[in-house]
């Protein structure tokens, strides 16, 4: 959990951090999460997050951060996780005593589920199937909510709780996402879920920005009253509650703005206009974009835009990113990025008509696995094109074919999603491989647009 105090011109004035695994060892997490008893189950004890909040604010104050100057507060949290408030928890939230730690008041009894499912939990394939079937199929689910049913998404997770722990579900007065839970602590009341994070639940009608009755019915009974009405990601929910005024000297007029999920926050935090395409070159390659209309693409995710009322956010994740680049680097350049780049730079754009697609792992879009290499003699419609060539003549050609192929693939799917490439297009590159100038050059060539790197002001 990180807390950052920003000046009006967005410079970092102070920051503090709590590492769940080492600062809160009593919760025995690895990477901030615990594996559940069954396959694909992952959970967090919500009190860990509450305790982290106590600590992170204390640490911020120890940095001599003057919290009495804070005009507004908001937050970003992992998408998809859900918390189930008990009646007692909500009344404790309404009457926080500034003389006591938060975690002494929002303790286990504040929740009806103490092993709360988080984004990593992928144990709900059965519920996904049931929900999609109930509303008429996968296409309907995509049309309505922007994504097909995913096991990590909150709707299927809620359904699993309803099915397996019916009494707990019945006792849950309200359900929060991790982001709206964070806002709830500051507000001293259960905070509304925002449209963008709400789009990661398979429950929100992303066009009308209301909970879809069909999806709610397919999920669990009396769910709309447990979720409350969703709001804009920039909605002011109210003033910070007295607890934070008394204990940390926030001004009583400090506004609490709806919190949202990590992906929408990443797009919002880039502070870029709609002609920008964000390309994150991490373990996977991820593309983020603003869209005028939700596309008709079954794969990928479409969310309500976190900062623009009538726009949408497109999110594409490709599994075969850095890990494939690393593997080819190892094979052709002894694992040295320097050699890799020398080889890459020694071939011209277009690679003499040689191109490859490497889906070493089953790719997400398209669902395909394997490697295909083509040279310029290959006719796309010929039976040979389905087999390709076995290998290229040199490491130089191999390496350029890999990177150009990856970027052509990314560009093609981004266009399918509805992103329009044109003279105004700009690319923002982030993630581990964005340090690699030669790869960035290929992105600029293939996307036919200038590429920028994000600079973090610290
Ligand atoms: P994540 O946040 O997804 O864990 P990062 O954004 O930290 O990943 O990126 C890690 C990846 O960056 C590694 O898989 C590594 O292959 C890649 N990487 C690091 N340096 C370079 C480089 N100079 N050229 C290309 N790729 C690089």
What does the model show?
The chain has 458 residues and is α+β, with helices and mostly antiparallel strands. The protein has two domains: 264 residues, Nucleotidyltransferase, domain 5 (2-Layer Sandwich), CATH 3.30.420.40; 132 residues, Nucleotidyltransferase, domain 5 (2-Layer Sandwich). Helix content is 35%, strand content 19%. It has 17 helices and 22 strands. Strands 17-18-16-15-21-22 form a six-stranded mixed β-sheet, sandwiched between helices. Helix 14 runs antiparallel to helix 16 and helix 15 packs across helix 16. It is globular and about 75 Å long. The model has no long low-confidence stretch (mean pLDDT 96). The protein binds adenosine-5'-diphosphate (ADP). Adenosine-5'-diphosphate binds next to helix 14. This is Xylulose kinase. InterPro entries: ATPase_NBD, D-XK_euk, FGGY_C, FGGY_N. It holds the Pfam family FGGY_N.
Q: Could you say which structural class the secondary elements and strand pairing correspond to?
A: alpha+beta
Number of domains: 2
CATH topology value of the largest domain: Nucleotidyltransferase, domain 5
Helix segment tally: 17
- CATH homology-level superfamily of the largest domain: ATPase, nucleotide binding domain
Q: Total strand count, please? A: 22
* Relative helix content: 25-40%
How would a textbook summarize the main sheet?
6 strands, mixed
CATH class of the largest domain: Alpha Beta
Low-confidence blocks of residues: none
The gyration radius over C-alpha positions equals 24 Å
* Inertia-based shape: globular
Beta-strand portion reads 15-25%
Strand order of the largest sheet: 17-18-16-15-21-22
Which CATH-level-2 architecture of the largest domain?
Answer: 2-Layer Sandwich
Cofactors, ions, other ligands: adenosine-5'-diphosphate
Mean pLDDT: 96
Separation of the first and last Cα atoms: 17 Å
Enzyme class: transferase
Family: Belongs to the FGGY kinase family.
GO molecular function: ATP binding; D-xylulokinase activity
Function: Phosphorylates D-xylulose to produce D-xylulose 5-phosphate, a molecule that may play an important role in the regulation of glucose metabolism and lipogenesis.
């Amino acid at each position: 959990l990180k807390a950052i105090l920003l000046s009006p011109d967005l410079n970092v004035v102070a920051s503090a951090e709590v590492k769940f695994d080492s600062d809160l060892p009593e919760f025995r997490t690895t990477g901030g999460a615990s594996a559940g008893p069954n396959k694909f189950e992952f959970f967090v004890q919500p009190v860990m997050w509450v305790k982290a909040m106590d600590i992170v604010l204390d640490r911020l104050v120890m940095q001599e951060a003057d919290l009495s100057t804070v005009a507004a507060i908001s937050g970003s949290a992992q998408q998809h996780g859900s918390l189930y408030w008990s009646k007692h928890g909500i009344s404790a939230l309404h009457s926080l005593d500034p003389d006591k730690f938060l975690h002494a008041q929002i303790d286990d009894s504040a929740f009806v589920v103490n092993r709360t499912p988080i984004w990593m939990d992928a144990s709900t394939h059965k519920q996904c199937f049931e929900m999609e079937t109930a509303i008429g199929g996968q296409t309907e689910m995509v049309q309505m909510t922007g994504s097909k049913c995913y096991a990590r998404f909150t709707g299927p997770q809620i359904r699993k709780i309803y099915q397996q722990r019916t009494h707990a579900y019945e006792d849950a007065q309200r359900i929060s996402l991790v982001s709206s839970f964070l806002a709830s602590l500051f507000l001293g009341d259960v905070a509304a879920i925002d449209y963008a994070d709400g789009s990661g639940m398979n429950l929100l009608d992303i066009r009308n920005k209301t909970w879809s009755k069909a999806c709610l019915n397919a999920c669990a009974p009396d769910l709309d009253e447990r979720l409350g009405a969703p709001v804009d990601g920039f909605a002011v929910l109210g003033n910070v509650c007295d607890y934070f005024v008394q204990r940390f000297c926030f001004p009583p007029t400090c506004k609490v703005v709806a919190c949202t999920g990590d992906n929408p926050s990443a797009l919002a935090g880039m502070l870029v206009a709609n002609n920008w395409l964000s390309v994150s070159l991490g373990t996977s390659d991820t593309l983020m974009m603003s869209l005028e209309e939700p596309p008709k693409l079954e794969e990928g995710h479409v969310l309500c835009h976190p900062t623009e009322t009538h726009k949408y956010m497109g999110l594409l994740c490709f599994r075969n990113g850095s890990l494939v680049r690393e593997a080819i680097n190892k094979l052709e350049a002894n694992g040295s990025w320097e050699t890799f780049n020398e080889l890459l730079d020694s071939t011209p754009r277009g690679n003499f008509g040689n191109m490859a697609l490497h889906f070493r792992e089953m790719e997400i879009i398209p669902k395909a696995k394997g490697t295909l290499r083509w040279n310029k003699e290959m006719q796309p419609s010929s039976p040979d094109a389905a087999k390709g060539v076995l290998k290229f003549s040199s490491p130089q050609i191999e390496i350029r074919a890999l990177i150009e192929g990856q970027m052509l693939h990314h560009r093609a799917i981004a266009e399918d999603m509805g992103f329009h490439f044109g003279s105004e297009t700009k690319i923002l590159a982030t993630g581990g491989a964005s340090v690699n100038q030669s790869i960035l050059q290929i992105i600029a060539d293939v996307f036919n647009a200038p590429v920028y790197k994000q600079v973090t002001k610290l």
